[in-house]
């Protein structure tokens, strides 16, 4: 037994390549060429293979470390018979992958046999040859555009690793690698049109004596045969699958995660899984030696989506079926235009809030007859100051007082940590209708500001919003929002809480109403208030208290001074 360094191979000129995943731990037993870790450049992710079979005795890198050619990432203690791997690794072409049996539970029975055959394996040498991979039969299609290149120069590939994705008007399909080996040169680019027989890439193919038998044992003889015939496309595979008497259901790719499970997947598949947020330990590989293929990842994601659409356990309302659009042109002429960024962002935020927050709306009418008289009395003073005073600053002030009195409205919920975040400041957002969509600038420390200051600041921020001059910081940090449609009209509405806030006040148009004073009806100016709140944070009684308090404060604005 001897210890051997696990070194970073030639990175094809790439430097400071980041470790994105450690695939083994100290104490793990690995086979030669088993992936030790994954590194990623801006072009590709590559697995660093073990130089031989044995036990990992040390690992000197962590995720995020930067590696260069020849860096030592750990040590491996060679197991019996693995010296061949060692000597192979000192060979100039030692980086070429040697197909090995992945070590897992189901393999254990055949292990003694494998051990016995080691002397034979010792004689094996990783012969290499150059091959040009050609486009296989495309079921009669020609000039099919390449929509994705799945590999980069320098990538080490397994048989069946997807090379490029092509898309006709009928289907997209991946062209898999017919060989294991290293990509020398990619000969196509996105957008190129391919037909059968066109060149895709040049490879240095690794070929090991005796390995073909192994592959055949795994039922993947076709893919491992040394052959110049073009590979089978995924469309072909799909066709085969549909001919099977009992096709595998989509959900069959789902398996509960088993900690410590070794994942066998190529760099392109790992990258795809990362992009889609798929946990590879949950996916059953359908490739040779249970390798996870791109198809498996896609099927897994599809099955998860189907589950959630059928009201599965995925949270936040994503189980809601989508809205199917009819062909509107059958009813008359239509014109389609892209959503503005602001519109699409608002749409996502609204939906997120609506789906996440159990909304309840509490209504109240505030008698603002006296407040309005006072406001009118201040108009001349306002003109002198150059400030227009509308009902809004009074409402801001009343809300600040109500938030101080009922602090359960001045919170956010951290459901992940099961915590209530209590804010010790009172910043209030005001919804502003602009030609570009809804914007919500924030007035800070409303409780510490006077009516004139609030009138000036709200008018200034509303103007900035309309002029698209708001800075991001001016739209952040609100504890509560006021959305006032009073200048426009309406008697009541149910605003959507601006999460992570827990309440929002909708203000409708004040109107003169006959109000019974105990002996007769009096004409009073009544302001309709609609308080929507997150029922997880606020209970109904507190919401009624909040709107009743607003009614009192706006009914007698002297109380705002108390
Ligand atoms: N009842 C009756 N009149 C009202 C009122 C109310 N609740 N609120 C405002 N007004 C009056 C104002 O006093 C003013 O009249 P005046 O010129 O005679 O004094 C007029 O309506 C226009 O006021 P406005 O310019 O809208 O000022 P504001 O301070 O009330 O509101 C904004 C400022 C930014 C909130 C407002 O312009 C706005 O954009 N509102 C729309 C918000 C929105 O789109 N919400 C929906 C979110 S989904």
Automatic annotation (TrEMBL):
Q: Which cofactor does it need?
A: (R)-lipoate
Alphabetically sorted, this entry's keywords are: Acyltransferase, Lipoyl, Repeat, Transferase
Per the record, its GO cellular-component terms are:
cytoplasm; pyruvate dehydrogenase complex
| Composition bias type Acidic residues, residue spans | 85-99, 205-220
* PROSITE patterns given in the database record: BIOTINYL_LIPOYL, LIPOYL, PSBD
InterPro entries reported for this sequence: 2-oxoA_DH_lipoyl-BS (IPR003016), 2-oxoacid_DH_actylTfrase (IPR001078), 2-oxoacid_DH_E2_comp (IPR050743), AcTrfase_Pyrv_DH_cplx (IPR006256), Biotin_lipoyl (IPR000089), CAT-like_dom_sf (IPR023213), E3-bd_dom_sf (IPR036625), PSBD (IPR004167)
* Coiled-coil parts of chain: none
Where is the Peripheral subunit-binding (PSBD) domain positioned along the sequence? 264-301
Q: Extract the ranges annotated as region (Disordered).
A: 74-143, 191-266
For bias type Basic and acidic residues, the affected ranges are 191-201, 234-244
Q: Which GO biological-process labels does this protein carry?
A: pyruvate decarboxylation to acetyl-CoA
* Molecular function via GO: dihydrolipoyllysine-residue acetyltransferase activity; lipoic acid binding
Domain Lipoyl-binding: residue ranges: 3-77, 130-204
EC number of this enzyme: 2.3.1.12
* Role description: The pyruvate dehydrogenase complex catalyzes the overall conversion of pyruvate to acetyl-CoA and CO(2). It contains multiple copies of three enzymatic components: pyruvate dehydrogenase (E1), dihydrolipoamide acetyltransferase (E2) and lipoamide dehydrogenase (E3).
What NCBIfam families has UniProt attached to this entry? PDHac_trf_long
Q: How does it assemble?
A: Forms a 24-polypeptide structural core with octahedral symmetry.
The family line of this record is: Belongs to the 2-oxoacid dehydrogenase family.
Q: What is the protein name stated in its UniProt record?
A: Acetyltransferase component of pyruvate dehydrogenase complex
